[in-house]
Amino acid sequence: MRAILKAGMVVLVPENDAEREHYAEWCETAKGHVFHFPGGSGALHDLGPREAACREPINIVFDQTEACWQPISNLALTPFMLRGKHYASIEGFWQGLKFSKDTDRARIARLFGKAAKRAAEAMPQPELFLYDGASYAAGGAGHRSLMLEACAAKFEQNAEAQAALLATGERPLLHRPRRDSKTIPGALMADIWMQLREMLRKKYG
Fold it and tell me: Which CATH number fits domain 58-204: 1.10.357.40, 3.40.50.1000, 2.60.40.2470, 3.30.70.660?
């Protein structure tokens, strides 16, 4: 195998049939990877796929992100239990908080995807609401702590969601929907995911 050094690149040239076959196999496994050259030995070290090696951000928005990351989204069908109640998605939990009747909350708890997101479109966010016997101010620290609690339950209980979150590795997570939430802004939502990712990593290794 002959190596040709050029500005900003190393060109590899196989010189016989065996090298050409080996080179073709290597190209398939190394496609899109980043390599590091520490000097000294002259070896190039494979750091893995470019997205992970360069820690490229992932924007978690259900209908915009890759399918492998969709279970992280609040809209995803990721059943979990919270305080004795069953929810099909985080969005179903969150939108249900806008309603005061348990029957409405139970109905919305079964929803996911756009159906969950639109469940409370005509319902204004009340300034104060009750949940599990406690009073919360909309957009306040307590309200946001409920989102953290719900997401923690989801990622602990739902294997698909947990695997997707851990698979993001060290890449920064973003949440930049077309219309941002006032009660749980995208930057805060993304921070919750990354907090939980670190907790899960420490717990499960």
Answer: 1.10.357.40
